[in-house]
């Protein structure tokens, strides 16, 4: 089964940087897919080509895609729209426009982003999938929607038995069961084949949020493998001016707090580097720091 490695954390902390660096590292071992579900994802800019309409090969052994809302909904339509229409139209006087209506339902795109992830993982094409997630809140929604969806489908099952009489010639139960099994597989994928790295910067809010995320993930049953403390100021550059000395001291406090609270989980530290986000140079350097010894 494909290994899924996700990077999560507050906006701007370095999720995309860590994801791309890790993807480059894994591409050196086997075929790797880099997926971004951040609506403000920057993979297209980094790889200097549009990645929001489909999977593209961006380097040797490395494919990448940005899951835009449009792409997810297009794929959703292709896969499920006919089924849903058949079932609903069997007992409601509705036309195909019901599909447009359903597309607007809250949580639908989150639901189908996870379906996309499952499809890619089950395809067996990739040894690893690196998942660059949206900032905190959206990612957590994604997980809770999944649980809600599951309990909703269990309800749907009960409802079906009550409403059995109104269905004509179609088997909504088969559809409900298919969806339920899909949802189960997604939850299973997240709990058994996925691990998360929580990224933070050495500042109060990012560190607090990192631990909130870790707690939620623990609650959901996704393995938090460790933390990445990114953009740590190197001591040798902070000695000559009171501003940098104070900044350094404040960062050291956050750093200690992170190490204490991380407990047995590793905290990988990446220094503040010079340069902009680009493959050769900056990202290779981060890859070397994140995955030493290769
Ligand atoms: N260790 C680092 N040193 C210097 N700049 C960094 C470092 N990590 C990330 N950056 C820069 O910080 C910005 C935000 O990083 P990014 O990975 O896009 O964060 P996120 O995906 O969490 O929003 C980018 O401009 C990136 O180039
Ligand atoms: Mg990003």
From TrEMBL:
* GO molecular function list: ATP binding; ATP hydrolysis activity; ATPase-coupled arsenite transmembrane transporter activity
Q: What is its EC number?
A: 7.3.2.7
Sequence ranges assigned to domain ArsA/GET3 Anion-transporting ATPase-like in this UniProt record = 3-275
Pfam families in the record = ArsA_ATPase (PF02374)
Q: What top-tier enzyme class does this entry carry? A: translocase
Give me the reactions it catalyses. Answer: arsenite(in) + ATP + H2O = arsenite(out) + ADP + phosphate + H(+)
Q: Which InterPro entries match?
A: ArsA/GET3_ATPase-like, ATPase_ArsA/GET3, P-loop_NTPase
**Tree of life domain:** Bacteria
Q: Which family does it belong to?
A: Belongs to the arsA ATPase family.
What is the protein's given name?
A: arsenite-transporting ATPase
Q: Which organism is it from?
A: Desulfoprunum benzoelyticum
What phylogenetic lineage does the species belong to?
Bacteria, Pseudomonadati, Thermodesulfobacteriota, Desulfobulbia, Desulfobulbales
């Amino acid at each position: 089964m494909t290994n899924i490695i996700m990077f999560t954390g507050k906006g701007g902390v370095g999720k995309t940087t860590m994801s791309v660096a890790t993807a480059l590292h894994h591409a050196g071992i086997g075929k790797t897919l880099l997926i971004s579900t951040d609506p403000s994802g920057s993979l297209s800019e980094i790889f200097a080509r549009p990645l929001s309409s489909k999977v593209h090969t961006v380097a040797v052994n490395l494919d990448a895609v940005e899951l835009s809302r449009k792409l997810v909904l297009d794929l959703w339509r292709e896969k499920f729209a006919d089924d849903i229409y058949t079932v609903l139209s069997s007992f409601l006087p509705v036309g195909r426009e019901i599909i447009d209506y359903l597309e607007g339902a809250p949580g639908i795109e989150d639901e189908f982003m996870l379906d996309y992830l499952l499809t890619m993982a089950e395809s067996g094409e990739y040894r690893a999938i690196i998942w660059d997630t949206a900032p905190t809140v959206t990612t957590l929604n994604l997980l809770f929607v999944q649980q809600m969806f599951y309990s909703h489908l269990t309800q749907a099952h009960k409802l079906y038995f009550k409403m059995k009489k109104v269905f004509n010639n179609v088997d909504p139960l088969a559809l409900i069961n298919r969806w339920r099994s899909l949802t189960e597989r997604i939850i299973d994928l997240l709990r058994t084949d996925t691990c998360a790295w929580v990224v933070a910067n050495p500042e109060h809010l990012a560190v607090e949020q990192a631990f909130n995320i870790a707690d939620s993930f623990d609650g959901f049953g996704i393995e938090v493998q460790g933390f990445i403390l990114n953009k740590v100021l190197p001591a040798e550059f902070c000695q000559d001016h009171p501003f940098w000395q104070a900044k350094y001291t404040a960062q050291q406090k956050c750093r200690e707090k992170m190490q204490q609270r991380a407990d047995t989980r590793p905290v990988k530290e990446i220094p503040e580097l010079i340069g902009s986000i680009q493959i050769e140079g900056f990202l290779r350097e981060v890859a070397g720091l994140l995955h030493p010894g290769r």
